[in-house]
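note to self — DONT lose this again. spent like an hour looking for the file last time. sequence + predicted structure for the chain T wanted, 93 res
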Amino acid sequence: MGVFFAISNANFRAMRKHFRTFLKVYGPDLKPLYFRYYDPRVLRTYLPTCNAKELRTVFGPVIRYIVEDEDPVALLKFQPDGEQVKRDQTVLV
């Protein structure tokens, strides 16, 4: 599945509540779907497409998300930057 970290100053209960708010989403046909935000393949594709409102929702109390890059020797760090998301890569080897 890969690496997924959410960095926050919030307590565990607040983080659990935050993530539960968007675990289930609705598709265009209003069919309920599970949003696999914890899957690096999903998060690294989704975050760059977010508008400001979506970023506020998905980040909430989260300061930074860290996920595995497509190349597993690197990590991607995502954090809000105004109305956009900032993406940095860290190579591990």
